[in-house]
Amino acid sequence: MILRLTTFLIGFLWVSVTTAQEVPVVTLGALNKITAKLETIKISRDEKVRFGTLEITMRSCQSNPPEETPESVAFIEVVDYGQTNVATEKFKGWMFASSPAISALEHAVYDVWVTDCNMVDPSASSEIE
Q1: Residues 103, 94: contact at Cβ < 8 Å?
Q2: pLDDT of 11-39, one tens digit each?
Q3: Which of 42, 61, 77, 84 shows its CA 20 to 30 Å from the CA of 127?
Q4: Radius of gyration for the chain, computed over Cα atoms and rounded to the nearest angstrom
Q5: What phi, psi does 90 have (nearest 5°)?
Q6: With 0-12 CB in 10 A as exposed, 13-18 as middle and 19+ as buried, what is 118?
Q7: What confidence tier does 128 reach under pLDDT thresholds 50, 70, 90?
Q8: Residues 6+ away with beta carbon under 8 Å from 32
Q9: How many CB atoms lie within 10 A of CB 39?
Q10: Would the CA dihedral through 27, 116, 121, 24 be positive or negative?
Q11: Cβ distance 73 to 96 under 8 Å?
Q12: Exposure string (b/e) for 67-78, b if CB count within 10 Å is 16 or more?
């Protein structure tokens, strides 16, 4: 019992130290179905990125440690401004990298899916594009 508590506290302190220095960055795949243009988009927490008429915001993302089954999940909000520039919420929820069909953006022109989530040092600006 004491060993488990000690391991938990050490893990909690390690997570607290690393999250104070690093920010989560989600990597998304984005496809324009009409032009067949495929892009890789990296978004840090609460950042808004435009892809076509979509505005994508990542609120949270998490990845399993390397010793566990690979999985990255992200809480994503997608707003479509369309041709009239009127905001319409198209998606708000968790997306799973291993099973994109479980919780997918349903849009006639665009597909967006999670590929990865990483913790990135904000001082290393070259990693966030």
Answers
A1: yes
A2: 433 444 444 578 999 999 999 999 999 99
A3: 77
A4: 17
A5: -105, -25
A6: middle
A7: low
A8: 38, 51, 52, 109, 110
A9: 12
A10: positive
A11: yes
A12: eeeeebbbbbbb
Asked whether the beta carbons of 27 and 114 are under 8 A apart, the reply is: yes
Strand stretches in 11-109, DSSP E? 23-32, 37-44, 48-51, 54-63, 72-80, 88-96
- The per-residue pLDDT for range 71-124, each reduced to its tens digit, is 999 999 999 999 899 999 999 999 999 998 888 899 999 999 999 999 887 776
Alpha-carbon gap, residue 58 to 25, rounded angstroms: 8
Contact assessment for residue 98 and residue 112, using Cβ atoms and an 8 Å cutoff: no
Query: Structure pTM?
Result: 0.75
> What 3-state class would DSSP assign to 127?
helix
DSSP at 45: T
| Look-up of token digits 């369309």 | 82
Q: Tokens for 85?
A: 């520039």
